[in-house]
Amino acid sequence: MSATTSEATGIEAAGGRRFAALLPFLALLAIGLVIPFVGNEYWVLIATRIAIYWVLISGLNLVVGYAGQLAIGYVALFTLGAYTTSVLAAGNATPPVPAFAALGIAGLAGAVFGVVVGLPALRLRTFYFAISTLGFATIVTQIALAWQDVTGGGIGLPGPTLPEPFDTVTGLLYLCLAFAAFSTWITANIARSRFGRALVAVRDADVAAEATGISKPRLLVLVFILAGALAAVAGGLFASLQTYITPDAFTFELSLLFFIAVLIGGRGSILGPLLGTIILTVLPEIAAPLAAWSTFLYAALLLVIVLAMPGGIAALLDFRNRKPLPPGRAIAPRPDAVRTLVAHRATPDILSLRGIVLSFGGVRAIDGLDLEVRPGQIHGLIGPNGSGKTTTLNVISGYYRPETGSMMLGGHTLAAGRTTDRAAHGIARTFQTPRLIGEASVLENVMIGGTIEGRATFLEALLSLPRHRREERVMEQRARLALAAVGLDGVTEVRADRLQHSELRFMEIARALMQRPAFLLLDEPAAGLSAEEIRRLAALIRAVSAGGTGVLLVEHHADLIFDICDHVTVLNLGRILAAGTPGEIRVHKEVVSAYLGA
Amino acid sequence: MTEGSAAGAHADKELLAVHALEAGYGKIGVLHGVTLRVAAGEVVALLGPNGAGKTTLLRTLSGLLPRTAGEVRFDGRDMRDAGPREAARAGLVHVVEGHRVFTQISVNDNLLLAGYDLPRGERAARVDEALSFFPEIAAKRLDRGGALSGGQQQMLAVAQGLVRRPRLLMLDEPSAGLSPVLVDRVLDVVTRLRAQGTAVLLVEQLIDKALAVSDRVYALAQGQVVLSASAAETDLHHRLERAYFGA
Amino acid sequence: MLASILASGLAVGAVYALIGITYNTMFATSRVMSFTAGQLGMLGGVFGSLFILKLGLPSILGLLLMLAACALIGVMTEIVAVRPVLKSLEQHLYVLTTLAVALLIQQFTAIQWGTEPQPFPRLFAIGSGVWDEKYWLPVVICAVTIIGLEYLYRRTLVGRAFVAIAEDNFAARALGLPERNLRIASYALAGAIGGLAGFAGGQLLLAFFANGPLLNFYGFIPVALGGLGNNRGAVIGGLALGLFQQAANFWVGGIFSSVAVFTLFIIVLLAAPQGLFGAAASRRV
């Protein structure tokens, strides 16, 4: 009873918060709209520039702030958009194209090249990717300089002239504000959707993201398309603001302004980077002597932010997460909620491993392992260090590819080494060290578990269409239920990295339960828990298996294993030393001596 | 044991005193109030199931990991701010698990590096001294560390520890991955060290072998000392079993 | 024609190789790829021009002062941008902190030194045509640097300590090596090598504040080709890149040569992310 009322109030409160969250954006838009009436033309130009930059930065924010990809060379796409629009409108290479059509084509070109620039990110990490975007930025400028018959080389070419009523200073401002408002809306929609949560998951916990079925390449390509298109459109608008463009206008410093605006704003926020954009654009204008030092100041600001205030402006504005959490809070799982959550996913299938062999550098970590996990059963996997327990879990969930052997789930073969298709097979897991998305709320962490069930497309999420909204509501309700089941419903809105270690363990289980798994793999769930918490964990695991889910439990706490398992397999040196009921294992001579090391 | 009396002579002088030590990795607490002591010249075995915190304990003692609470005194000195370098200088030397020698440089250089802080003129003599314990790797002193077998690498790792002439040598699972003959070979060194008056804190999985070379035993489970006994005590196996699996 | 491609290709290639070694030297003790590598190269040129041409100091004194100044900047990088984020290496904050420091250096230079390229002095005035000093000097300096580094790594205890830390930082610390001091020393060394790169190539690249990002990119390619931390790979990769770039420059013209270099870079990275001579990636779970 109480659960449903608390859910209802929770959702209402969320609605109220959403409106409150909208206010700053509306206020900024209002300021932008009244500037022509209160300020001079100079300020109108600056407001226009902010709006244009924000069109690009809102997309870059998804790439840098959400997906964590260090794209430092986005000026390349901005340049591309500016030149594409101008060249098409001027008719240097083709018959002249109307300005808005040219802008649209530039957006398409930006989408394509956004993927080209982003492609390396699918395989390369951080510094490599940063350098490759830097290289791309260098090259675009060089091409603009050298391809003289089209771009006008160093002399440049006129920007597109927009039709009435956008050919005036004020008209252009309003047009750019409209673009800025639209890009705020769509990027916020993505950020709040399962795509946005998955981006953050890929950034902070890529291994866990794979286990919930998130495919990083597809996700990133979609975001690169969006960010590329926005960047190129921003470039086109910039060209018409400048009225005349040369390669000098597109310096690497501009690229850094874009990048640093996101970081100063704070990762995983929309409002923060928007404020960052405004500050970085306005700062050199109001302090004219600073203009020469502006990039120096940006860099100093970046250093200070990273070292002293990693959360950026967004963290300063995040009042909710600065309230201290109640001390001495207990985790009180509710096994009945578990049953409602997992019951309907029960399956008669058996998860079976046959003859698995895996070596690391000549050492056989798993040496011909056969294992069967049955639905509704708690199967314990124990053994000394290096006996291959966790390695077995990693083979099942696809992180390691065995040399020989097969894995079956019911009648289906589990393809070796395919991490992202396990969730679709109904296999969920937790990790030895909890893989949390520290900057997301506990609720969002758990909702990650429902990602692959989402049917609404990226486009539907972008425009917040009904099917998407419906799905989001269902997901949120289920995530709240999962949190109630593990006993964390008191901290749903809290940023996950503020939780204690034991709470994180239960949060990971909630994320796995969110998948309503047929099989649940638990890797040392009791490590670091108190005796009382272990008792509650035991009750929770029992409830999960009672709902028909098969549990494979790797654990060092012998008492927990003997207490709750239906079946225990003992590994030693990658082989099965013994298997049987806890009662049999407990008195098994070789097991006892393997454990004691005699 | 004939050396027993020699070791007994300074056994009452406390060398390492650990009190209510807590440590872990990030938010995860591993040690929950460990208290133990090692006297000068004695060999103490540290046993326990995996995940009990033995490796964490050694790493905290040698300053590789920060402590969260508690106290460590070595030879009367508070080791609060001591990193691994200071610990090694004080004579508390840690040979980490998994024979992590440097594979790119020669055996000789591996040992010279262990004596990095020693006066230049003394290094060569110390290296020879350490190698005298292991004639089988002395013959390979110009080979790269990577060319040694696993057992030889373990010997090299122990020899690296010996270059410092430790007063307390902490060995983390020196037998892991070694054949029985080599295990005896490595543990034999423990006996020789004991005869010289060097104290040893030995983490081992092979209980019987560890007990054979030790004076005393501590057992760790879930980050706490659950048993402290003399190595000579009968019925030790049953007591360990009870300590690990619960009554 | 071929001779001039060879001469200029080997010359710029040697500069790229030295920047690559700068990256590697910092990486070895800290696992950090620093954006300051290119800026050190830029500073080598600027300091050389400043000390020798502007202040009129003797070449050798100018060289020594440049080395000292760049070593100092290397140490500063370690203190400001690397040490504070070492604990969170996983989050790759170092990309941001070193980028910030690199920008600070670049902008400070722009304001104090000016934004126009300025000439770099001829030091020996030996040779002309393809045997001009500006072509052979980088190659000679690169060779001398490599011989010096080989001596350091093979013959001295400090050098072997670098090798040890690069291979297994944890074991090195456990052994009681003064890891922090060695890291600072390696950053000083990297600073000097980076400065030397810019000094060697000063007559080709001039003393220009904006050389940093360019050197960052072209100096990183040899590292990517040769594999992180592999100096021999960096030298081969650097010379190959220089020759390829100059040949492309000659045959297909400026823009397309940079497009060709970039495309090649991306293809190699995607096909062999560990570099052509690199080791396999570590485990994730």
From TrEMBL, chain A:
Places the protein is found: Cell membrane
Record's protein name: Branched-chain amino acid ABC transporter ATP-binding protein/permease
Originating organism: Plastoroseomonas hellenica
One annotated GO molecular function: ATP binding
Transmembrane segments: 19-38, 44-64, 71-91, 97-119, 126-148, 168-188, 219-238, 296-319
Entry keywords, A to Z: ATP-binding, Cell membrane, Membrane, Nucleotide-binding, Transmembrane, Transmembrane helix, Transport
Keyword match Cell membrane: yes
Alphabetical list of CDD domains matching this protein: ABC_Mj1267_LivG_branched, TM_PBP1_LivM_like
Lineage, opening ranks: Bacteria, Pseudomonadati, Pseudomonadota, Alphaproteobacteria, Acetobacterales
Highest taxon listed in the record's lineage: Bacteria
Pfam families reported in the protein's UniProt record: ABC_tran, BPD_transp_2
Membrane topology: Multi-pass membrane protein
Occurrences of domain ABC transporter (ranges): 351-598
From TrEMBL, chain B:
Keyword vocabulary terms for this entry: Amino-acid transport, ATP-binding, Nucleotide-binding, Transport
This protein's record includes keyword Transport: yes
Domain ABC transporter: 16-247
CDD domains in alphabetical order: ABC_TM1139_LivF_branched (cd03224)
SMART domains the UniProt entry points to: AAA (SM00382)
Family: Belongs to the ABC transporter superfamily.
InterPro entries linked: AAA+_ATPase, ABC_transporter-like_ATP-bd, ABC_transporter-like_CS, BCAA_Transport_ATP-bd_LivF, P-loop_NTPase
Protein source organism: Plastoroseomonas hellenica
Molecular function as annotated in GO: ATP binding
Protein name: ABC transporter ATP-binding protein
TrEMBL record, chain C:
Subcellular location: Cell membrane
Transmembrane segments: 6-25, 32-53, 59-81, 93-115, 135-153, 187-210, 250-272
Membrane topology: Multi-pass membrane protein
Segments forming a coiled coil: none
UniProt cross-references to Pfam families, sorted A to Z: BPD_transp_2
Signal peptide range: none
Keyword Acetylation: no
Keyword field: Amino-acid transport, Cell membrane, Membrane, Transmembrane, Transmembrane helix, Transport
Domain of life: Bacteria
Protein family according to the UniProt entry: Belongs to the binding-protein-dependent transport system permease family. LivHM subfamily.
Protein name: Branched-chain amino acid ABC transporter permease
Organism: Plastoroseomonas hellenica
Lineage of producing organism: Bacteria, Pseudomonadati, Pseudomonadota, Alphaproteobacteria, Acetobacterales
